[in-house]
Amino acid sequence: VPARRPWTGTRIITVSNQKGGVGKTTSAVNLAAAMAESGLRVLVIDMDPQGNASTALSIPHSSGTAGIYDVLIEGVPLADVVQPCPQVLGLSCAPATIDLAGAEIELVPLVARENRLRRALATYLEGQAQEVDLVVIDCPPSLGLLTVNALVAARELLIPIQCEYYALEGLSQLLKNVELIQQHLNSDLQVSTILLTMFDGRTRLASDVAEQVREHFGDRVLRTAIPRSVRISEAPSHGETVITYDPASSGALSYAEAAAEMRTTKESA
Ligand code: ADP
Ligand code: MG
Question: Which domain of life does the protein's organism represent (predicted)?
Fold first, then answer.
């Protein structure tokens, strides 16, 4: 068990990209697990009605389970829905149930509809006896109100990018939304981190796209790219992150390395 690191403020990172299947959830849960294993207290908030992050962390999330839906729509305290992750000490998760699918519409007429997660999280963080070091918010593949809530609640945005032909298409839409949110709802939001996922360095295309991404985003792109790895894709079906499922695998090592890089950016910031 690693020693508890000293608290240096709560870092709140939203993982978003409106494309599906680019590695948002995989990156959210594995970075969170790697950070927790390094001695940080980490909360994952699952904002995707699919509940894939909840599944990967072995958190029950069948319909009717108290989850993020109840927090956003019913005003239930976040503390009432957070559950400890059984595999990783220091890691907990606010699960998403399929009920959250309705929230996208149900949020529309509500007061402060873009701020509901931010408020719930602020109350939660104040009420914790032990400080939380990191909050990681996993988004659905859309730019609707669930994602807006996640972007308003965070100070950092991590964008996972899969190095394929259409990777950069659609990114301008996300960045435009980020600008609007910076102007109107959350001036603290920064695109802090880009993570290349499912990277296959043997293909020319992947290297070309990676180069383009690095040209555009500079040192915000983590040096560590996550390789395509069967172990990474197997882990969720065992209710685990690859960090515990196969700690020596290339996938686990690369997520641990990416997490270490992210801790350095914070320390030097
Ligand atoms: P998103 O949350 O953006 O929709 P996921 O994280 O769910 O994307 O990933 C999409 C699919 O790709 C999942 O089946 C996941 O297991 C798989 N996957 C993600 N990253 C990797 C990787 N590095 N190697 C192999 N499979 C991966
Ligand atoms: Mg996902």
Answer: Bacteria
Span 82-126, pLDDT tens digits: 999 999 999 999 999 999 999 999 999 999 999 999 999 999 999
| Alpha carbons 84 and 81: distance in angstroms, whole number | 10
- The C-alpha angle with vertex 44 and arms to 78 and 95, in degrees rounded to 5, equals 60
Nearest C-alpha neighbor of 224 from the set 246, 256, 266: 256
Residue type, 144: G
- Pocket residues: Cβ below 6 A from ligand 1: 20-26, 52, 141, 197-198, 226, 228-229, 232-233, 236, 251
Round to whole Å and give the CA distance between 25 and 48.
9
For 35-62, what is each residue's pLDDT tens digit?
999 999 999 999 999 999 999 999 999 9
ipTM for the predicted complex: 0.99
Write down the CATH number for the domain with range 11-268.
3.40.50.300
Ligand with minimal distance to 226 CA? 1
pTM (global) more than 0.90: yes
Q: Which residues make Cβ contacts (< 8 Å) with residue 19, sequence separation at least 6?
A: 141, 162, 166, 170
CA angle 220, 223, 225 (to 5 degrees): 110
Q: Which atom of ligand 1 is nearest to the CA of 226?
A: 23
Which ligand places an atom closest to the C-alpha of 159? Answer: 1
pLDDT of residue 1: 63
